[in-house]
Amino acid sequence: MSTITKIEGYQRDVKQLRVAAYCRVSTDNFEQLESLQNQREHYQEYISHHPNWQLAKIYYDEGISGTKLTKRNALKELLGDCCNHRIDLIVTKSISRLSRNTTDCLQIVRELQQLNIPIIFEKEHINTGAMASELFLSILSSIAQDESHSTAGNLRWAIRKRFASGEFRVSSAPYGYKLRDGNLLIYPAEARTVKHIFHKFLTGTSATQIAKDLNGHQVATQRGGHWRSNTVLNILRNINYTGDMLCQKTYRDDQYHRHFNHGELAQYLIENHHPSLISYQAFDQAQKIIKENAQKCHIEVGTHKYQQHYPFSGKIICGYCSTTFKRQTRPNKICWACQKHLKSAKQCPIKAISEESLEAAFCSMMNKLIFSQRFLLQPLLEELQNQANSNSNGELGKLAEQIKANDHKAETLTQLMQSGLLDKAIYVNQTAKLEQDTYQCRQKIKLLNSQNTDSANNFEEVRSLLRWCQKGQTLTSFDPNLFQTFAQQIIVNDPTEVIFKLKCALELTEKLTKKAAVYQQFYRGIIKQRFNEPIKQAEYLYSIIESEGDLIG
After folding, report:
1. pLDDT at position 472 over 50
2. Given 84, 270, 532, 552, which is the most exposed site by the fewest CB atoms within 10 A?
3. What Gene3D superfamilies does UniProt report for this protein, alphabetically (predicted)?
């Protein structure tokens, strides 16, 4: 007799999608944090209802605005996990939760589409994996950005009205005070430190030395960090220690960047707002000293930033750690040193270089250019001119024609679909392809235009450099104005040599010597080599000059 065996239903192996949820609240008050907890619980339940979904992780940012990507650590962590292929799908409440900035939103979506990771926006019912066009997302994202601007504007208006009426309530206390029921009360431990800072500064101690002394006595800042000269100066500049409250000392622009208010907006002074720590006389004297020190150190008034007082200021970059070099006065010489190396040689091994050797290297480089102008700078100028005349004109025309053709095809598809001669699915598919092709054409046009602008700028800078070299006036001493005219940066990869990045895009390597050589002749046995880029060819020729430097008279 035949045996019948019952076979259980076949269970198909469905791929489990690793799903991540992203939540964000813009403030850290109790109600918002409660909303964040509700969002997290919602996504745990929402994802569990899909049999082929597996919860990977719930990412959340607390008390962070959606206008900027830089400070949203959870979102950056999510994008990093996506790049490392740990996520297959992202779910979020709405476009505004992801970003209130149109540019950031589209950039995130495009990056994830390249990784084949779709985003589901619940509120708008959008799945970017099934989205045929970015247009709809762009419109909704712009609406979210406009809503954010409107809300921020309303809040700023309300705050300024409270400034004008004197009803403004302080939300945070400066160092030396504590906030209780909206009122500033003196905090004795910190108040003693504030008075100590003013006393030391008025008796001749610098802000840097005051910071060192406070750190040496292990006095904590308001946030538990270390004291710096800027921290001390901020206390010395704060008029609130006189008992008056100055409102709107800073403001945010439409891009949410904070600026010091130097008269752009009205300021409001509320006198005798809270108990004072410093007298008006002491505060005014401190401001006078700060102003005098700023003039001595060439600090730009109103910005608290140093002017580029020395020719090399802000232009010497460490090739090892990319830190700017700092000027130092040492016994019998002036040096420039990497700021990280000054803190610790373990952080950066690049040692200091003397200012004299830098000046000599610049003179040496310029003299070499004088004697090599005929076969280095003149050919370079001709190549750049030919490149500017012929470069990409034909390609720009082709791209423009391609965009016109795509627009014409899109119109034809629309007419065919409206007349019932074309299936809607085919119409959506073909339209999406045309939009993608048009987008790529526009990106290529932007790139070509940018390249043309760079080539034109390089051409003008090389022509300016060639005109100077044609004068034939070799340098016997360093000329700061000449350096500012032609040099953009100095890269230090080694204490024995530097790379001069010129404004014409040339990068020329020079050895560091104590005295600048004045070249009267030039070694003409130069090996010529062709390159696709004129700049690269000129740099190669200069490297031959540098290697044959001992043969130059």
Report:
1. yes
2. 532
3. Putative Large Serine Recombinase, Chain B, Domain 2 (3.90.1750.20), Resolvase, N-terminal catalytic domain (3.40.50.1390)
